[in-house]
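2024-03-11 09:14:02 DEBUG pipeline.ingest accepted 1 chain
2024-03-11 09:14:02 DEBUG pipeline.ingest length=107
2024-03-11 09:14:03 DEBUG pipeline.predict start
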Amino acid sequence: MNPKPIDWYAIAADPRFIELHRRKSRFLWGLMAFSLVYYFLLPLGAAYTPGLFSQKVWGSMNVGLLFALSEFAVAWGVAVIYSRRANREFDALAAEIVASVRTSQNA
């Protein structure tokens, strides 16, 4: 016996889905804004504060190079933050919505 296909229109109209989409979008826009600001701090800092960015920290390592390398840590951090939030909150809400639509289809 094949299960009935999911009614995506019913899911899209569900107020819980609309709220989930709103919360997820707001969270992702916030992460993206933070990432973009942090990303553009590197060229702006290099252009407007070259003395700071060329300051030696250890050996030939300077502040600008450390800041550039920190971009990788920030990217990984954003990915970890999103995956934890998605696993804890967004995925659970999505599964709840799909389950309720499936039970209403089977009724």
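2024-03-11 09:14:41 DEBUG pipeline.report The beta strands are 56-58, 61-62.
2024-03-11 09:14:41 DEBUG pipeline.predict end
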